[in-house]
Amino acid sequence: MENSLIGSSVVISRHHLSRLAAPILAGLALACLAGCTADPTPLPPPTGLNPTAFLETRVPQVLTADAATLAARPTTTPSPTLSPTPVPTDTPTATVTPSPTQTLTPVPSLTPTPSITPTTGPTPRRTVGLSNFPPPPLAFGGDPHFLLSRPIWPGGNVFVASTYRFGANNGETHHGVDLGNDLGTPVIAAAAGTIYYAGNDLSQVFGGHLDFYGNLVVLRLAQGWQGHTVYTLYGHMATVTVQAGQSVNTGDPLGTVGDTGVAWGPHLHFEVRLDNPQDYNSVYNPELWWYPAANSGAIVVRVVNQNKRYLPGVRVDMKCSDGTKRFLDTYWDPGVKGDPQYGENAAMSDVAAGYCHLTTTLGGKAVAADAQITAGGITFVELAPTSKP
After folding, report:
1. Alpha-carbon distances of 315 from 12, 39, 160, 271, rounded to whole Å
2. What is the C-alpha to C-alpha distance for residues 226 and 230, in angstroms, rounded to an integer?
3. Which H helix or E strand runs over 382?
4. Parallel, antiparallel, or unpaired: how do β-strands 378-383 and 296-303 relate?
5. φ/ψ of residue 16, rounded to 5
6. Any bridge partners for residue 355, and if so which?
7. What is the pLDDT of residues 220-233, one digit of tens each?
8. CA 372 remoteness from chain centre
9. Which residue, among 281, 331, 278, 275, has the nearest Cα to 301 in the 3D structure?
């Protein structure tokens, strides 16, 4: 019988949270930037890993369960220019065969920084029917396709909110990742390309409904991938400083962080879409498209039952050799899909290079796996019951 997991937890919903009174907000606990918990008895760091100091953090508003990293940034911000007219795009070509090994252009290194998060509890909600999910592809692996840099100006927070990763569920399954930052923090292009759309979504739907992302920018990348056209979406912006049809390079300013649309508190919502820039379901995990931080890599996880079907909403705990604990929840519904090449149902970037131990519970039994994270690379881990009941 296919598994269904039930659990409970208190979470902060970005899409459905009512505006709470200030005294209530003041009492909410904060989680870490990368879903990590300081371990009182950390393992030795891996050879060659340079430990980093904790970031000085503060929280301008309760946004997700994360502290936003704030540092020096430009003193002036360009005035907004909104353009609600999209630029037509060519019909994308479907993938036929994998492309040859790519030549990747290095981007400035990022340094991951551990922080503190409360002890994680069981998965917060009941899973949906497994028959709604397509079966995973037989193969599980593939080469990296790190085409992107981070979409926040250097000095801002470039790490994903641990409870607002791709596929997480806080009232509605999350179709991108959230980067908590101060109101007005510059948002920059994650790659070179052409602005497909710049403006708001009051008359055109890009998300769950009108006025979902508020002010947004959609960028069509100059570089495609395996016959696909790649788009990046930047949502909830305070200002937009580009126009549809404009060419931009990696790092060019697009506008500023805001809290427009269905946002609660200032942050950047960031998505990767393939082929159809206005399709809310053509999204893929951004953490598998940008370069990992310095001395870290990405981990790609597949959690399945004894019949090799995806298990949604499963909590996976990770203890890694940098002395921190991390957690992942598998994608909650078929509205978000595994990478076209990998077929995962959970993933995380910026995991410190070295050893990681992954554990979860499937059908009431503990399941574990070990992994070796490679700096600048990608590691694949499958968790499944060892035998049928």
Report:
1. 17, 18, 17, 23
2. 10
3. strand 378-383
4. parallel
5. -120, 5
6. 372
7. 999 999 999 999 99
8. 21
9. 331
Q: Which domains does the chain have, with CATH numbers?
A: 1-133+143-294 (2.70.70.10), 296-383 (2.60.40.10)
pTM for the model stands at: 0.71
Sign for the pseudo-dihedral over CA of 8, 363, 132, 331: positive
Q: What is the DSSP letter of 26?
A: H
Residue 128 pLDDT:
59
Largest CA distance in the chain: 63
Distance CA 272, CA 99 (A): 19
Answer for the pair 117, 31: CB distance below 8 angstroms, yes or no: yes
Q: How far apart are CA 81 and CA 83, in angstroms?
A: 7
pLDDT score of 162: 85
The distance of Cα 134 from the centroid of its chain, to the nearest Å, equals: 22
**352: which 2 tokens?**
């410190």
What's the rounded mean pLDDT across residues 33-37?
41
Tokens of 108: 């400035």
CA–CA separation, 132 and 49 (whole Å): 42
Which stretch, 71-75, 104-108, 341-345, has highest mean pLDDT? 341-345
Tokens of 4: 């269904």
User: Regarding predicted confidence, which is higher, 295 or 96?
Assistant: 295
3-class DSSP assignment, residue 287? helix
